[in-house]
Amino acid sequence: MGNVLARKLWNAGRLDPEDLQRLDEVISNPFPVDARKDLIQQGDDPEHVHLVLSGMVCRYKLMPDGRRAIVALMLPGDICDLHVAILGRMDHNLGTLTDCSVVRIPRATIEELLENHPRIRRALFWSTLVDEAILREWLVNMGRRRADKQMAHLFCEVHARLCAVNHMQDALLPLTQEELADILGVSTVHAQRVLSQLRAQGLVTVQDSRVAVPDVERLRDFAQFEVDYLHLEQGEGGRQHHTK
Fold first, then answer.
1. Alpha-helical runs (H) found in the chain
2. Cα-based distances in Å from 86 to 73, 81, 89, 105, 108
3. Is the CB of residue 113 less than 8 Å from the CB of residue 22?
4. C-alpha atoms less than 13 angstroms from C-alpha of 95 in its C-beta half-sphere
5. What is the overall mean pLDDT for the chain?
């Protein structure tokens, strides 16, 4: 299944050939976006929904003093803010962290998918619910896990999400120390210190400013990571195969 959106939505249940053909049409006009570019800014009136085909996009807020708070990561197969058109104006920014391939999906196309393709509609609603589950886990991460386990948990999540759509290349996670700091809500110096602790324990390595996970199961054990909240690998009928 070469369509990364279809691979993502397949986790919600089986899609028919007609659905897969329609999703191929949806992603037919991608365009490249360089790293560190905004796709849309707070206050904008969105005319399109953005779909990530490759690379990494973040949802972020800017503080009055210029600091950035990253509140979500959008990975290949993710639709950014599926229902944002309902709200009228953006209340946050969307920006690329890496070089990306992106598709703009018009509002009319989203409405057509929801109205005429019930399996796709269910899968899109599933995707929105998973986004909410990830946000809940991030809140737990920031409020209750110590910094090293918080960072390790984030690495486990990104690794699992990329593997689910066959985009985990070279076992490298494209997150810089500055971006980790913006996600964890700490200074860059503190993020560097925490990353060094994980490296010292052999849980991660750093190659070309990117994080590599040599032993995913060991990192999951350390972070006490349970993949259930991502709701991956669902079979026909919605039955989930639980993996650690």
1. 4-10, 17-26, 84-87, 107-116, 118-144, 147-164, 177-184, 188-200, 216-223
2. 21, 10, 9, 15, 12
3. yes
4. 17
5. 89
Task: Compute the distance between CA of residue 79 and CA of residue 81 in angstroms, rounded to an integer.
Answer: 6
HEC-encoded secondary structure of 86-126 = HHCCCCCEEEECCCEEEEEEEHHHHHHHHHHCHHHHHHHHH
Mean pLDDT calculated for residue range 93-121: 94
The answer to whether residue 122 scores a pLDDT higher than 70 is: yes
Which has the minimum average pLDDT: 38-52, 124-138, 215-229?
38-52
Q: How many CB atoms lie within 10 A of CB 133?
A: 14
Contacts 24+ apart (CB under 8 A), 163-168: 164/7, 164/8, 164/11, 164/230, 164/232, 164/233, 165/4, 165/7, 165/8, 165/75, 165/76, 165/77, 166/4, 166/7, 167/4, 167/54, 167/75, 167/76
Partners of 211 in the beta sheet? 173, 206
Q: Which residues contact 86 (CB under 8 A, 6 or more apart)?
A: none
| DSSP per-residue string spanning 172-198 | EE---HHHHHHHHTS-HHHHHHHHHHH
**Structural domains of the chain sorted by starting position, each given as residue range(s) with its CATH number in brackets:** 4-238 (2.60.120.10)
For the chain, first and last CA: distance in Å? 25
